[in-house]
C-alpha cells in the first residue's frame, strides 16, 4: 500500500489540492525508512494548502516532518500526532502557533513538558485540544487549571474549582 503512495508524493501535480494528510500507519521497520521519510518531507513541502495532518503511527514521526509541516504548510489548522517523542524534538511543536485543533495520542513526558508553552502560543487560535493518555489525573487536571477551559475528570464529572468557559 505504502509503495503505491510513494510515486504520488514525488510529483507536485496533486499537492496544491491536498487539504488533508492522514498517516496512520508507516513502515518504520522497513529497510527504506529513511528514503520514505525523505519522500514524505518532499511531498509535504508541496502541500501548500494543507489544513489538517494526522500522523499517529507510534515512533514514526520525525523532526523533519514536523519542521516541514510548520514551515511549508501555512494553512495548517489541525495537527493530530502520536505523542511519543522518541523520533522528534518536542520543542518543534512550539512553532505551531496558528493551530485550531491539537490532538495528542499517548504523549511522552517531554511532549507534556512543552504543552503549557505550546498552549500559550496557540491561545488566540486553539479551539480544540484532545489528549489520549493512560494517567489521566496527572496530566488533565493541571492542564485544565492552566488553560482555563471546561474540565472533567476520568468519570466525566466537573473538576471542582475549574472555571467553565465557552468553547465557540
Overview of the structural elements:
The chain has 168 residues and is an alpha/beta fold. The chain has a single domain, classed as Leucine-rich repeat, LRR (right-handed beta-alpha superhelix) (Alpha-Beta Horseshoe), CATH 3.80.10. It is 34% helix and 14% strand. It has 5 helices and 5 strands, in the order H-E-H-E-H-E-E-H-E-H. A 5-stranded parallel β-sheet has the order 1-2-3-4-5, with no helix packed on it. Helix 1 crosses helix 2, helix 2 packs parallel to helix 3 and helix 4 packs parallel to helix 5. The protein is globular. The N terminus and C terminus are likely disordered.
Which terms would index this structure?
14% strand; disordered N terminus; 5 strands; disordered C terminus; 5 helices; five-stranded parallel β-sheet; single chain; 168 residues; Leucine-rich repeat, LRR (right-handed beta-alpha superhelix); alpha/beta; 34% helix
Number of helical runs? 5
The assigned structural class equals: alpha/beta
The tally of beta strands, per DSSP, is 5
Nearest-integer average pLDDT = 76
Biggest β-sheet strands, sense, barrel: 5 strands, parallel
Shape: globular
The top level CATH class name: Alpha Beta
Strand content: 5-15%
Instruction: Please write the string of helix (H) and strand (E) elements.
Output: HEHEHEEHEH
- Compute the separation of the termini in Å: 39 Å
If strands are numbered along the chain, what order do they take across the biggest sheet? 1-2-3-4-5
Q: Number of domains in the coordinates? A: 1
Helix content: 25-40%
Tell me the radius of gyration: 17 Å
Oligomeric state: single chain
Indicate the CATH architecture. Alpha-Beta Horseshoe
Amino acid at each position: 500500500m505504502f509503495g503505491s503512495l510513494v510515486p504520488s508524493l514525488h510529483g507536485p501535480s496533486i499537492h496544491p489540492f491536498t487539504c488533508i494528510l492522514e498517516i496512520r500507519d508507516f513502515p518504520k521497520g522497513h529497510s527504506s525508512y529513511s528514503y520514505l521519510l525523505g519522500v514524505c518531507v518532499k511531498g509535504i513541502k508541496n502541500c501548500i494548502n494543507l489544513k489538517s495532518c494526522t500522523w499517529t503511527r507510534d515512533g514514526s514521526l520525525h523532526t523533519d516532518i514536523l519542521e516541514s509541516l510548520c514551515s511549508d504548510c501555512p494553512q495548517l489548522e489541525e495537527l493530530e500526532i502520536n505523542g511519543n517523542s522518541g523520533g522528534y524534538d518536542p520543542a518543534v511543536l512550539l512553532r505551531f502557533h496558528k493551530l485550531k485543533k491539537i490532538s495528542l495520542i499517548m504523549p511522552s513526558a517531554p511532549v507534556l513538558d512543552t504543552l503549557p508553552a505550546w498552549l500559550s502560543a496557540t491561545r488566540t487560535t486553539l479551539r480544540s485540544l484532545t489528549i489520549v493518555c493512560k494517567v489521566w489525573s496527572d496530566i488533565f487536571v493541571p492542564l485544565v487549571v492552566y488553560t482555563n477551559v471546561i474540565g472533567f475528570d476520568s468519570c466525566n464529572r466537573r473538576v471542582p474549582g475549574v472555571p467553565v468557559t465557552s468553547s465557540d
